[in-house]
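Sat 14:20. Reprocessing the chain from the morning session after the first attempt stalled halfway. Input below, unchanged.
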Amino acid sequence: MALSGIELLDDAHRLGSFDCSKAALDAWLAGFARTNQARGFTRVQIVHDQDAVVGSTASRQA
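Finished this time. C-alpha cells:
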C-alpha cells in the first residue's frame, strides 16, 4: 500500500470501497461530499491508495 499525502477530494478519487464503519458518514461521503465541496460548503480532505480513498475528513467553509 502506497498512501498519498493529504489531498482535496476530486473526481479522480474512487469512493466505492471506502468504509469507515459509520454508515451515515460513508453515505455522506459517497452522496454529498463532492457536491458540497463544489458549492463551497465544505472542504473534503482525503488520503488514497492509487485513487481509492482510504481516509477522509471534512470541514465547514467559513
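The first strand starts at residue 7 and ends at 8.
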